[in-house]
């Protein structure tokens, strides 16, 4: 049973005419999308096509060459900052190997705090939610690659953010972990959350839109 404490969010994520450069190369141009409560957009495309770059631009971690990202929330007239509105889960898990799982998740809970319209769950409950409640006392570095990825996902649950930005969330995961992640994402969307994800494997979401990145300024969009 997955328990996530949050009210139905009314967030909107608007990206307008985004372009980004890595080094000398323009990786994509004029990408726009508009995601409302409960909506998801999945970026696909070959290695190097710019998926991670787009996610990092939206999360405010990379500078956009052109365009802008707006985080529109009913609870904040002036809009929100990326750090207040989204969780970003990149290729790395952002956990300290020598601290226990409990200490890592506790750190993130205290450091991030909750966005206004939701409430995160405890480190113990979050570990339970990803199927690893029994190993919360172990140093993070002792965990297998798949267990580490599950615990990185649990970080999304300890502090509430309406938008989840996930880069290859299911890399190194077994089939049961994929199913757990899909259920957690569906629960997030059902509560009015938003998902922006890059993946090479389908995430099992029925109504996700797809943005196929072609790399070096090419891009196409279609609905799955
Ligand atoms: N710091 C950098 N300087 C120059 N080029 C870079 C830099 N970082 C990334 N790139 C290039 O930008 C392009 C897009 O990379 P990106 O990581 O966004 O691709 P991706 O679609 O996420 O790939 P993958 O599926 O392998 O994760 C690639 O061609 C990459 O080599």
TrEMBL record:
<keyword id="KW-0813">Transport</keyword>
<keyword id="KW-0201">Cytochrome c-type biogenesis</keyword>
<keyword id="KW-1278">Translocase</keyword>
<dbReference type="GO" id="GO:0022857">
    <property type="term" value="F:transmembrane transporter activity"/>
</dbReference>
<feature type="domain" description="ABC transporter">
    <location>
        <begin position="13"/>
        <end position="224"/>
    </location>
</feature>
<dbReference type="GO" id="GO:0005524">
    <property type="term" value="F:ATP binding"/>
</dbReference>
<dbReference type="GO" id="GO:0017004">
    <property type="term" value="P:cytochrome complex assembly"/>
</dbReference>
<dbReference type="InterPro" id="IPR003439">
    <property type="entry name" value="ABC_transporter-like_ATP-bd"/>
</dbReference>
<keyword id="KW-0067">ATP-binding</keyword>
<comment type="similarity">
    <text>Belongs to the ABC transporter superfamily.</text>
</comment>
<keyword id="KW-0472">Membrane</keyword>
<dbReference type="InterPro" id="IPR003593">
    <property type="entry name" value="AAA+_ATPase"/>
</dbReference>
<dbReference type="InterPro" id="IPR017871">
    <property type="entry name" value="ABC_transporter-like_CS"/>
</dbReference>
<dbReference type="GO" id="GO:0016887">
    <property type="term" value="F:ATP hydrolysis activity"/>
</dbReference>
<dbReference type="Pfam" id="PF00005">
    <property type="entry name" value="ABC_tran"/>
</dbReference>
<dbReference type="InterPro" id="IPR027417">
    <property type="entry name" value="P-loop_NTPase"/>
</dbReference>
<protein>
    <submittedName>
        <fullName>Cytochrome c biogenesis ATP-binding export protein CcmA</fullName>
    </submittedName>
</protein>
<dbReference type="InterPro" id="IPR005895">
    <property type="entry name" value="ABC_transptr_haem_export_CcmA"/>
</dbReference>
<keyword id="KW-0547">Nucleotide-binding</keyword>
């Amino acid at each position: 049973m997955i328990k996530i404490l949050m009210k139905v969010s009314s967030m909107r994520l608007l990206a307008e005419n985004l372009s980004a450069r890595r080094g000398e190369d323009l990786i994509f141009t004029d990408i726009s999308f508009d995601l409302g409560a409960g909506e998801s957009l999945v970026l696909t495309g070959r290695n190097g096509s710019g998926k991670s770059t787009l996610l990092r631009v939206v999360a405010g971690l990379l500078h956009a060459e052109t365009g802008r990202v707006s985080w529109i929330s009913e609870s904040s007239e002036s809009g929100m900052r990326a750090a207040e509105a989204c969780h970003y889960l990149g290729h790395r898990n952002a956990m300290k190997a020598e601290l226990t799982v409990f200490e890592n998740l506790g750190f993130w809970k205290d450091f991030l705090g909750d966005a206004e319209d939701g409430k995160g769950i405890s480190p113990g409950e979050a570990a339970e939610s990803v199927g690893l409640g029994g190993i919360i006392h172990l140093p993070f570095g002792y965990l297998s690659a798949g267990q580490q990825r599950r615990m990185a996902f649990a970080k999304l649950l300890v502090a509430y953010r309406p938008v989840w930005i996930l880069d290859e969330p299911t890399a190194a995961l077994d089939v049961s972990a994929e199913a757990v992640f899909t259920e957690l994402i569906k629960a997030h969307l059902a509560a009015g959350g938003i998902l922006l994800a890059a993946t090479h494997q389908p995430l099992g979401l029925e109504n996700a839109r797809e943005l196929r990145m072609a790399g070096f300024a090419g891009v196409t969009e279609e609905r799955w």
